[in-house]
Amino acid sequence: MTLDHSFGNASLTREAVQWPGSIALAKAKIASLRDEWNTAIESLTDEQLLQAERTRWPFANKPFYELAGWLNLELMKNASEIGYCRFLYGSSVQKSF
Fold first, then answer.
1. 15 pLDDT more than 60
2. Please, are residues 20 and 12 in contact by the beta-carbon 8 Å criterion?
3. Distance between CA atoms of residues 4 and 26, nearest Å
4. Where do the structural domains in the chain lie, given as residue ranges?
5. What is the 3-state secondary structure (H, E, C) of 20-82?
6. How far is Cα 14 from Cα 78, in angstroms, rounded to an integer?
7. Residue-wise pLDDT tens digits, 39-78
8. Could you give the C-alpha distances from 64 to 34, 46, 58, 73, in angstroms and in order?
9. What are phi and psi of 44, to 5 degrees?
10. How many CB atoms lie within 10 A of CB 20?
11. Overall pTM > 0.85
C-alpha cells in the first residue's frame, strides 16, 4: 500500500491485496516488493526525503523520511511477531524422542 501510494497511482486498497496462493509465492512477492521499495527509495534525493509530496498513506503532511522510517519499524515489528508466534508454536508441540 505504501509503495503504491508513494510511487504508484495510489489506487491499491486493502481489499485488493490477495494471498499469492503458496508460501513460495508469498516469499517471492515479499522479495519483489522489497526490491521495488529499495529502488524507489534509492532514487530519491535528500531534498525529496525532506518533502511531504510522496507522503500520502497511511498519513500525510509529514516529511517522506518519517514515512520510510515508520514503514521500516512496522516491518521489524511484524517480523518480530512472526518469530514469536513460531517460538510459541514450536514450544507447544509435543515432541517424542
1. yes
2. no
3. 18
4. 2-69
5. CCCHHHHHHHHHHHHHHHHHHHHCCCHHHHHCCCCCCCCCCCCCHHHHHHHHHHHHHHHHHHH
6. 17
7. 999 999 999 999 999 999 998 899 999 999 999 999 999 9
8. 17, 10, 12, 14
9. -85, 145
10. 13
11. no
